[in-house]
Amino acid sequence: MSWHASNKKIRPYVVRIETPNNVGTGFLFAYNDTKTVAAIATASHVVDEAHDWKLPIKVTHHESGEQIFLRDEERVIFVDREHDSASILIEGGSLPFPKETLPLIEKDKYAKVGVELGWVGFPSVAHPELCFFAGHVSAFISNQDCYLIDGVAINGVSGGPVFNDRADDPPRIVGIISAYLPNQTEDKTLPGLLRAQDISPFYNTLKTLGSLGEAREKEQLESATASQVQAAQTSD
To answer: Where is this chain compositionally biased, Low complexity type (predicted)?
Structure first.
């Protein structure tokens, strides 16, 4: 099977994400009803420090080369650390994304073991190239909502889209790149497995994707709740 067509179709949706201390990959996965808000998916570990410390984020649209610098007040980020997922909400016209988004696998479905999946990202060893990878699903860990895939992920690929090929139809998003799990022995590191998070956290974003103002209020509420929980755990 050739992945050339699917790789070509997904590239216009992909962005490079840079923070003062981190680099990763992201991709457009949704608009609000009026297309005034665009939602970018990535891994939470790519942006969580910038989110917590209100640091700037640079987002580069790969196909056009256009860049935007997002200060804290110019974006909204929903972080799900448990599932290593984050949604970055920006103004809809900030980057030249396609007008229509790619299909997402149904929330209660997952790619079956043995199915071949593709993914793209910006590995540090090939800067600034967007690279394509492919591998087969080795397992789906249901209590963690994640895939183990026979493939690789290099620093910079985290947050990239994982998708399946559908011949003449647009590729379908099934997850995001989270980490590479090496097979370590006492004296050397052997090939391991790729960990990819499923897309269920992003369906939660879709439920409340209104204006940026509404999203910011929700972000502030979630942040306050998380701080209260952390304070309670510390006091215990």
So the answer is: 223-236
Q: What is the CATH number of domain 11-101+206-235?
A: 2.40.10.10
Residue 209: per-residue pLDDT: 82
Low-confidence stretches of the chain (pLDDT beneath 50): none
Residue 14 CB neighbour total at 10 angstroms: 23
Pairwise CA distance, residues 93 & 125, whole Å: 31
Q: What is the pLDDT of residue 211?
A: 83
Token couple for 38: 């665009």
Shortest CA distance to 132 belongs to which of 171, 103, 95, 104? Answer: 171
**Identity of the residue numbered 230:** Q
Q: Are 38 and 73 in contact (CB under 8 A)?
A: no
Q: pLDDT (tens digit, 9 = 90+) per residue, 17-71?
A: 999 999 999 999 999 999 999 999 999 999 999 999 999 999 999 999 999 999 9
Q: Domain extents for the chain?
A: 11-101+206-235, 105-200
Cα torsion at 17, 46, 84, 204 (round to 10°)?
Answer: -40
